[in-house]
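Model it.
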Amino acid sequence: MLIRTHQGRWAVLGILATCVVVIGPAQVSQGQSRQASPLVVGKSQGCLRVATYNVSLNRRRAGQLTKDLQASDHQARAVAAVIRATRPDILLINELDYSSDTNHARLFNRDYLADTDVDLLGGAAWPMKHYYSAPVNTGEPSGLDLNDNQSTDDPEDAWGYGRFPGQYGMAVFSRFEIQRREISTLQKFLWSDMPNAMQPVLGAEKRPYYADDVWSQLRLSSKSFWDVPIATPQGVLHVLASHPTPPAFDGPEDRNGCRNHDEIRLIQAYIEGADFISDDNGRPAGLSSNDRFVVVGDLNSDPSDGGSRGDAINRLLAHRRLSQHAAPRSTGAVTTAEKQAGANEQHSGDPAEDTGDFSDRSVGNLRVDYVLPSSDFQVVASGVVWPDLEDVPESEREAVKQALAASDHHLVWVDIRLR
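Modeled.
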């Protein structure tokens, strides 16, 4: 049987390291049997698996996702199949609409992850009974004209772009207990409270795009920023979850590019325990020097390519408190970039590190989804669930293709253990 290591090389099962990735209709390594699947990622013995996945389970109308999830939604089942094949211990899902009426995280876990029926990929149930979801800024009315069109009720006038409150929400899932009383959220943290904030400007005279009375009210997070502590077998792990705005869909002022930049800067400031940060309950927030953590999420910024202001993501990746390791990779991203060509031909970054499959007439495929553990941890294995379909047996290829087509993002996972 062939296995794929985190360096992207192929080897024969039996001469592998402790942590491996197994792709094929096989059993999970380390004696953990399961239903046969064309896409199985082997669990790593003695490691904690952390993953992030933008699942694109967003809908155009409030309440629609509730109806879809209750009706055995095909897209949700495909997404769940990928997660069940990967079997993470901790998972951040981006773009799961939030509802104050129905707990979509609970519904997704109960009816999809924990479902005992064999899934699209032949996989078995993978319940994650601990989960956390909360309100986000997307679709939340600001009452302000944020896009300068003399209206205050457009999707762009919400605190974060959205047609209704909770669109493009997020949720943290865990196999281990979440310390709910210790959670900190920065949903309402003001952009103007960020030191040296990158305020959008217009023209050679650099006139502020936002009037002073608007700028003073703007929230920084387009969705939210969460610190979710989880009691794992390797100690308390602070899951730092976010989903910065895409650096696009604006004008010459680059307001979304500026916001994305500072949303990523907020992650770094939180890691450093900056004294200007208070959470939504008014408590001082930020990590101490002894806290173990992992940064997860669709950060919408590629280190080399795309339209973001790349200095923020590059500073974060090089941060002294982060484990310095090779980026998760896949073979499918390479072959996809080659076949699609277009904007991908202009990229300078390694296509093997791409996590999102985007328009090849504009930005091309990019690395935007991240799992970044603190330096307390050794990264033993990692990967992006994006196989080259030519490596999948023809009889199973269509099922894998359907599962991966559920989102324009691919699940990213990292296996870690304490040094």
